[in-house]
Amino acid sequence: MQKTVIGIISLLLLPMVLAGISYNPNPIKLAPGESKEILINLQNSEDKTVVLLLQWIEGEKIAKIMGDTKYTIPPRSYDTYTKIKVSIPQNANPGDAYKIKLQINTAPEGSNQIEITKGYFVEIPVIVVAESQQPQSPSPQEQPVPTPPTTTETLAESSKQNKTLIAAIAVILIALVVLVIVLMRKKK
Amino acid sequence: MKRGKGDTSRNAFVLILLVLIGLLLIFALTNRSFWNRLTGKASTESAQVSATVRNTAPTIITDNLDGTTAIDLIPESTKDVVIIFKAEDKNGYNDISTSSAQTYASISRGAVTRQSSPGSCTKAPGGNPKRADISCTVSMQYYDENADWTVTVSAGDIGGLSASQNTRTITVNLLKDIRIATTPPSGPITLSFPTIDPGAVNQGATNDALVITNRGNYEGTITVQGTNLVNGPDSIPIGNFNADITDAGSCILPGEGGTATALSTSVVIANSILPRTPPGNAEDLFFCAESIPDPIISGDYTGTWTIVI
To answer: Which of A68, A104, A107, A155 is most buried (most C-beta within 10 Å)?
Structure first.
């Protein structure tokens, strides 16, 4: 039997867009009924716009993408964010563990040949806890600095002592004058 | 009636006493230094005064005026992170020196420290005459570890005294970004197989490796997600292709004594590791068509393969 020759298989790497993602992969701890929004930074290092596609792999039951699943990222842009809202069911139990897993791909550019794209997993563990462990809103707290008495305070203290001294002298003088007057009257 | 001798003496005593009191009052009222000492009022007399005010070290009042808690790095570049903190110096705002090598901010983890350039910090009035808001820029590298880093801020004064604080952490987020290229990375970027006969085996790609270069701080394995290659109603299953990190091993599966990984809809390439720290922050992938179905119709077969980290 004569064999058929297959044409060249060519995996075409289309002009590979330079796009990436950044996010915090640390576990999220939430209590039953709580929710939290997380941000994923979508970046484009190209001089042209690129398209990124989001798709769920795991965790869709407790989380949802707050915007579109297709993002057009402007050239040289490092501050486009997609927001994911994570909500823990009321009937969840402390100790339950979930995982949010998405994949963000560069969009195929439509070729008649075999195309290689690239993608990024977003994986964030979610742990159910008994009580809320979400950080409080950051509030820069000024630490009070112990300070010695100021110059003004020292002067005020000194002035107070002087007034007491003047009053004491005045009392003595008045007493002496009164004594003199009494003595002079007795003499008459 | 005549006055007695005793009365005269008493009168003389009283008179002397009154005179003494009068003199004392006159002295007190006319002598400025005595009066000033009594009242505490400053003397208006000119005099040479010598006083030495001791230089005191600045103190850090708060280290996170900027409120930054996490950093998104920039691929294959540096990310400038501005750290703003408040310092106080009892010798006054002007005593806090931004040209001092002691005035800086740094972000560190383990043995790695990123620090603002000496003398590059700036200051602005911080709300009272003794305080300054100090702003320092720290450049983070794209491959800096995804972890919590310690922020240290330090303020120095003109006299060489300083204070520092390192109670704050900042999270360096995970940055995933890769570049894919062939070797060498020039011209049209394609991965090609030779013309293959039906039933052929172990046909390696002709221009691999695909070089996966890490442009971020991810550190881990590489996944390939494949689809069948399709030509009309016919196809070559994705499972007929292998990948490996070495050319020699790309066609030989572990069951045959090799290390290659059979491709599928999603598979981690065995032994693949993408380091984060340059140089060496790249991984090569080699591909092989292990077997071509027979019979199969002639033509070009297409599909989409995705490199995922």
So the answer is: A104
